[in-house]
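User: Here's a structure from my thesis project, written as structure tokens. My advisor, Dr. K., wants to see whether a designed sequence matches the one we expressed. Can you design one independently, without my sequence as a hint?
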């Protein structure tokens, strides 16, 4: 009886060892890639690595089973059929989102922190994964969008170099357009926008719809610039005595000749540097993601500089070598400092994500 138990244990020993090894490797891989934020691997790469290791572990376990080669071949064939069936059945969601994620990564139409508009959703990108993309809306909410949705709908990305910001206003036919146009252009300039323009959109039954705007070069202040433009339009039109009110409403009420429907203009003053913009609160997560990305770019630049200096050591004299080594040492210390800042920022971000409802 004891001999039979020992023979059975020897027979299954390779399988048990392989199971233990695969479980340990998967646990260590998960800890390095997911639990440790300083791994330097993107979310997409982490997901692909874990998926690949899991598939390899399953194949290795099948190969170590104490069965014949024919049975192992049948099991591998069955495993292939299972994977094929899973991919076929989930092609509308799982595989489609993964393929859409690959497409978005290859096209590189947007980065973390960019403003995007897709369908009825608008916000800044905070997460770009294999299966989904997360944006932070103007209400500070986090919206998770499947990558398939982004791939099958028109995607608008606000360029980092600037974007046109505009607003519309309706005025009566009693106000000449050549009087309105310079006022709207002046309002656009006072709002801090470049290359102002004015368009006449609609000749309605009771009013004319004007559109004015310009280029907003600081896209991080996009919401604030839109509000500034509307304030400036109100101030300029009211200061010129132009009423922004429906002519049909005016025709239905008998009013004194001197009564107008306009508020006293309040001219825009220079913004205080200490004043906190609403974007810093609305897009707080997106701002932190952008800062981390900027720090990572700085680290990559320092590493590239170190590599260049190391290659140039052989072509200079000893005096210059000492200077180059000093620069390499300073760059290395700077990289360590930046890595600590990035680690701390990621830890804080992880805590905030866990605290979110």
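Assistant: Designed independently from the structure alone:
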């Amino acid at each position: 009886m004891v001999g039979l138990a020992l023979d059975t244990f020897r027979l299954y020993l390779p399988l048990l060892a392989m199971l233990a090894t695969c479980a340990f490797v998967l646990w260590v891989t998960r800890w390095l890639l997911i639990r440790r934020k300083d791994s330097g691997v993107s979310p997409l790469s982490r997901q692909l690595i874990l998926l690949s290791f899991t598939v390899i572990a399953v194949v290795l376990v099948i190969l170590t089973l104490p069965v014949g080669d024919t049975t192992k071949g049948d099991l591998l064939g069955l495993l292939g059929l299972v994977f094929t069936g899973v991919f076929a059945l989930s092609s509308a969601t799982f595989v489609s989102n993964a393929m859409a994620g690959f497409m978005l990564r290859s096209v590189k139409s947007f980065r973390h922190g960019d403003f995007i508009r897709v369908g009825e959703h608008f916000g800044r990108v905070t997460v770009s994964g294999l299966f989904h993309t997360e944006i932070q809306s103007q209400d500070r909410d986090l919206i998770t969008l499947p990558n398939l949705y982004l791939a099958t709908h028109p995607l608008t990305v606000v360029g980092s170099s600037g974007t046109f910001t505009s607003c519309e206003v309706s005025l009566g036919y009693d106000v000449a357009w050549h009087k309105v146009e310079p006022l709207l252009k002046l309002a656009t300039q006072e709002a801090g926008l470049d290359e102002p323009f004015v368009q006449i959109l609609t000749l309605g039954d009771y009013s004319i719809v004007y559109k004015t705007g310009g280029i907003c070069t600081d896209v991080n202040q996009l919401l604030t610039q839109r509000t500034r433009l509307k304030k400036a339009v109100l101030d300029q039109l009211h200061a010129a005595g132009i009423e922004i009110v429906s002519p049909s409403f005016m025709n239905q009420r008998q009013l004194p000749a001197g009564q107008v429907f306009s508020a006293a203009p309040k001219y825009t003053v220079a913004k205080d540097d200490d004043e906190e913009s609403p974007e810093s609160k609305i897009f707080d997560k997106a701002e932190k993601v952008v800062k981390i990305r900027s720090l990572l770019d700085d680290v990559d630049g320092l590493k590239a500089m170190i590599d260049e200096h190391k290659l140039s050591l052989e072509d200079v004299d000893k005096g210059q070598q000492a200077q180059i080594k000093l620069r390499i040492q300073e760059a290395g210390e700077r990289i360590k400092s930046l890595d600590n800042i990035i680690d701390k920022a990621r830890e804080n971000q992880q805590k905030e994500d866990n605290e979110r409802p």
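When you compare it with your expressed construct, this may help: The beta strands are 115-118, 121-128, 132-137, 142-146, 155-157, 163-171, 194-203, 208-216.
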